[in-house]
Fold this sequence. Notes:
The protein has about 525 residues and is an all-beta fold. Helices cover about 0% and strands about 50% of the residues. It contains one helix and 42 strands. The protein has a six-stranded mixed β-sheet with strand order 11-19-18-13-16-15, with no helix packed on it. A hairpin with a 4-residue loop joins strand 25 (about 310-320) and strand 26.
Amino acid sequence: MSFEYVFASEEYNEYVNSSFNDVFGFFLNGSNIALLPGTSTPVTINNVNGGTNSSYFKNNDPSDFGIPTPYGTEYDGFTQVLEAVAVDLQPGVVHHLKIAIADASDSALDSAVFLRGQSLGAGSADLAVTGSDDSDPVEIGESLTYSITVSNTGPSDASGVVAIDELPAGVVFQSATVSQGTVTESGGIVTAELGGIASSSSATLSITVTAPNTTGIITSDVTVVASQFDPIKDNNKTSIVTTVVEEIEPPYADAGGPYIGEVDEVIRFDASNSVDPDGFILLYEWDWNNDGAFDHISTQPTAERSFGQVAMSTVAMRTTHADGTRHIDWADLTVYIPHKDPNIYGSPLAEFEESHYTGSIGESIEFSVKPSSSIVKYEWDWNGDGKFDEVTNVARATHIYSEEFLGEVFLRATDSAGKTYADTVGVSITFPPAITGSQLSDNVFASISSSSVGFHGVTMTFDGSASFSSNAAIALYEWDWDGDGVFDTATSDSAVDHVFANGFLGTIALRVTDANGLANISYKDITIF
């Protein structure tokens, strides 16, 4: 059983801690239950005032404030709303209630007690409120919906249930709906009068707002109250916290790589850089030969696979996200047969220092062999065709490949006596890594040379040879033929032929990438009749 009350007196504040200690009591079966929360301390002038238990006291003394005082009453001070509670009452027997208020030592100044209407009840209802948002983070200026549930775990039915949501500063209220009762909004406060909620039942409140125009953390504070005594008050409040950002990064797949390994070697593939900022990734699927059929499915971002033959290809990786969307990315794969015979043709006087070399088109790659003072000439065959392309007198040389290559470099070394030695080493040359916007560089210049007018069905030549980089050689030329931002042709050749199937009035683009992965883009307006 419980009820709510306020004790007030004109003895405040001049007679605090004196013998004029007016008091209030609510006696149930002879025991006072009008006590300060969580204590056995009765409510009196000396026990509740500006210096003692001040969190329960409201000062209204004209000596401090003048006339008028802050509150619309003649009493010079009064308590906060307090609750008298009795638990474990035996049902089916008669219980006696007595309310007592008394002056102490005199009858000159009045004291009073105010009882909240309909707050006296014999039941209790444990109300709980929970809440969530439909988007966290949310972009500035976008709609945001709060979903709030008020539940009654009993044991009694609850009446007069009211949920109050203090909306965050900066949001703009749009609308609100309730599953029962009525809802209003005023000054950023949403009040839902839900009426009665039976034991083991619930009611819902939905509020839609517009997010602020500034980034940061916003908090929506929700409170629920009812007419019945609530034995557990900690669950009567909840806060919904949302992060406001300028732009939500879209989910994307990242297959990682490039991946390089020997034939029959177990290669570890890793897609852990894939991102879903608004949820989580359910599945990772791998297509080992990029034929459109996904061969490996897992909830983990990593996978392992060995290959029984040489390959220079791509693997595909597809992510499935919590919202059902899918995203795909590709990674380069190189599988090679390593050179395993260090004594070929009289080595080690001609022995490469690395077991395998990798690089990108346009990249300067340095090859080196273990030096020997006996060797006077080194001959290099860069593509293993049996023809020596370069001669040096030192045990190293550099070479730039202009196209993809998976094969071997052949070295022949000659000593001062004319004796020759030889060795081979595997080489994998691929296109440079795909660029992102952050890799566009002013040190790279892209240029398109072509006619601005042509006819559909007729071959046109487009030349990017005037493009250059101050850092490294241009390794990749990519052409966007319809200006949609998707590059349709990729080649290591600076000039390409293209046939427009239909008339076109718009802009084409050329993106050039150097051997260091830096790039830039050039555009050209053309008319195709």
